[in-house]
Design brief:
Metallo-beta-lactamase, Chain A; seven-stranded mixed beta sheet
Amino acid sequence: MIRNLLKHVLGVSLASTALILSISVSYAQTSPASNAQGKTEILWLGQAGFRIKTPGGKIILIDPWITGGPKTPPQYKKDLAAIGPIDLLLVTHAHVDHIGDAPALAKMNNTKLYGPADMVTPLIQLDLIPADLGHRFNKSGSVTPLPGIKVTAVKAEHSSLLVHKNPVTEKMEAHHAGEPLGYIIELENGYKIWHMGDTGLFGDMKFISEYYKPDLVMIPIGGNFTMAPDDAAYALRTWVKPKTVIPMHYNSNPMTKGTLVEFQAAMKGSNIKVIPMTEGETIQF
């Protein structure tokens, strides 16, 4: 009788262990870590606008100046819905070539618009987005808006002003829109992208790079409003030192005269990989 009882207890124990292992395997197959095996795709929409498809298949849209962008690919310029579903919407500041179509896209996709606090607040007060579709960063802060994806707000040396047409007076109005940001975006596989937004040189670029260790940097090179090609090259070679860089914020405004050729010349001899893109081009890695 004792022998039979021991067999029964052992059988229950083994069955329980198998069930626990089965649950653990099932969880591992559906957890964020398991979604890190795909490739990353980056589409340049022009100026500072990018669409990123993460290894887990999520779509991140940054600074979507689409319908007004002179170099926006025509299929998106004619139809915002062609951008596709958006899981995460990031805006660095309120200048029109960055905020662009973000409020419309937030409402179209029922997706939160993440941005500087003092930009998001007037967007809500002016009824440009509903309150539940605005997420406010301050001059720093980290969030996990999607499983396995972390976004950290970092400094950008620039300004921010929201220009809005009053529907009653039909006059353009300027609204203070807080301070601009850059973003460190960590994907499901741990890969980190630093979208600098609009910025000039500042010494804390070195600290940001050393602390967050970005793999890829999206850096403005057009000059006038941001770093020029030689400024950007200095920052990359001296302070930031990433593995890879994508130049942006040029070729869309006659006041931003910095060119890709000038930037490539300034980066000559560096070990940093420069990925030159054209508007509408997609890269995959």
